[in-house]
Write a structure and sequence with these properties.
There is one protein chain. Helix content is 43%, strand content 12%. With 453 residues, the protein is an alpha/beta fold. The protein folds into two domains: 232 residues, Aspartate Aminotransferase, domain 2; 133 residues, Alpha-Beta Complex (Aspartate Aminotransferase, domain 1). The relative contact order is 0.14.
Amino acid sequence: MVGFASTRSDAASQTADDTGVAWLHTGYFTGDPEQVDPDVAGLIALEQKRQREAVELVASENFVSRAVLAAQGSVFTNKTVVGYPGRRFHAGAEWADALERLAIERACAAFGCGFANVQPHSGIQANLAVFRALLSPEDVVLSMSGETGGHFSHGGVSNLSGAMARAVFYGVERDSELIDYDELRRLAETHCPKLIVAGGAAYPRAIDFAALRAIADGIGAKLLVDIAHFAGLVVAGAHPHPFPFADIVTTTTYKSLRGARGGLILTNDGSLVERLEKATSPGVQGSPLLHAVAAKAICLGEVLRPEFTAYGHAVLANARVFAAELMARGVRVLTSGTDTPLVVADLKPLGLLGQPIVESLDRAGITCNRCEIPFDDTDPALSSGLRFGLSAGTTRGLSIDSVREVAGWIAELVASHAAGSPEVAAREADIKARAAALMAPLPLYAMTGAGLR
């Protein structure tokens, strides 16, 4: 392995010269990754090649703008500022304060709310902060179960949120695979949760926020809506808005918002702001990642542009065409469609498991992930479902016709596995070549030997 380039001598390691430069390796302030660390630079180049050539259908991924990417690598990386604008623990925060205020202003404008916290490192951190602000371990939270599309940060035993409250879970109707609002109401009236959580990781249909508001009001509960997978559609007006029904909204800033990895907490309830701030920092994290806040600010500025409205509607159109084509080719889709960027395929009728098909599709140049299916007892490590997302492909420029073609390739490969065809490997190779050819003319960042320009 090639190590860091360095001119450090034994003497220099003990005593710096007058300028202190002896403590630095060559190119510390000027070197590009390929000059300073070829090992990492090579991996960056390989990942960029993979992203360029693959059809990206992982629902939690997207492609950020060049401006967002640059902000992530800005000098805000160097700054620590525990606290909030005007109330920092560290000095030198003038421009950090201005940056965070700008991001907050844009978040409020994008989502039509009065208050925003842009500090959470992730959507999970945002959810944990809400739990910390509102709940004690003896309190009940009513959330969607993981096997029916909920997220583990809504009280799942595998996540810290599961220790922050006592979770009760609602699900979906067996026939329609839609949220069972009658069951939800019964559970709410029986267990009197302090918080009801809506949204999740793999529920593809629009949620009846008004119905949830009525249920929450009936028992005096707060309503949290996690819109991580469809936030971009909300901003674009292509999906029902959680406000004014929700007390609190959380989201990630990547996925359908096309921004930096991180989270947001949004509310119109001024009485909750201080509790949410303290629960975020120092409650569940310390200093915000200011380089990520800078990138979030750019992302939130981008979503306020008219072209983002067109993008959101294009994502939904592509997702619906993708779902329809899979069904036309014999692959069952949960709820027979989608109202979000998500499409969830059920492989159980074909006698297949999700994880082996994910791996096969990856070899074929199409990336997605396995997904649990309601009322299925298959090992979650294998599962019976596939989860697709159309946000990233739409960003690259996939058209309706291209999306239909990709869905056809997936159905072909799934059918080959179902039939036990000996030609699966050859079909994977053929689809991989077609996928690379499809993506080749679509825009991504300019590529150099080991990185971006």
